[in-house]
Write a structure and sequence with these properties.
By secondary structure, this protein is α/β, with parallel strands linked by helices. 36% of the residues lie in helices and 28% in strands.
Length: 217
């Protein structure tokens, strides 16, 4: 598929997604399928959603999200006020443990603390990103090790990948070292890559995932 075709499909997907202002986003596609997004959007959520929209398009192998967040004057907040709203949003979400904290500087939220599962960390990042006035989120939450042996983690991840209808795991290799899971090999789409990484994160005892997968069409 020609770069111009991929670029057109990315643009169409951006306009199709009601959460994204497609007119504010410039799209460029390299020969290896890397999509670069440039422009200015009005919220951090729009920046994230634009990247997700590009990732859904066939032949996209990676996304370089260079979009800038520029808040309208009425949406700008003092850091102390913004931190209070972020902490309140985290507190109201029962998925997020009370061990997660947040600080704010110039509209950038930094999440710290501990969690037992990656989905809790992802939920905290998602919730913080949706608070009005946030321009970026830096995630520094540490995952507690739940203690399974490496062989148990590898076996559990391999079985989860085999069960996943969205993933052909034949060319995916998993290794574990002290809770750090490395996922190598090739997949056929960004959706398959996400499925493989998600399976690795879901295993009890995973504290970090190194994504060394290549998307090859």
């Amino acid at each position: 598929m020609a770069n111009s075709t991929v670029e057109a499909e990315v643009r169409d997907e951006l306009f199709w997604d009601p959460k994204v202002d497609g007119e504010a986003v410039a799209v460029a596609v390299a020969g290896d399928g890397t999509v670069t997004l440039r422009g200015t959007v009005g919220s951090f959520r729009q920046k994230r959603e634009a990247a997700k929209a590009a990732q859904r398009v066939r032949r996209v192998t990676s996304v370089d999200n260079q979009l800038e967040v520029r808040l309208l004057t009425e949406h700008r907040r003092e850091d102390a006020e913004l931190r209070g709203d972020v902490l309140q949003a985290l507190l109201l979400d029962s998925v997020i443990p009370s061990t997660v904290d947040a600080s704010v500087k110039n509209g950038v939220v930094t999440l710290t603390g501990t969690a037992d599962w990656q989905y809790q960390r992802s939920e905290a990042e998602f919730v913080a990103a949706n608070v009005l006035g946030v321009v970026a989120v830096e995630e520094g939450i540490y995952l507690n090790s739940l203690g399974p042996q490496p062989d148990d983690i590898e076996s559990g991840i391999a079985q989860a990948m085999q069960r996943d209808a969205k993933l052909d795991s034949a060319n995916v290799i998993v290794s574990v070292d002290r809770g750090i899971v490395t996922v190598k090999g090739t997949v056929r789409s960004w959706a398959e890559r996400d499925a493989a990484v998600s399976a690795a994160w879901a295993a009890p005892g995973t504290v970090d995932v190194i994504d060394d997968l290549s998307v090859i069409y």
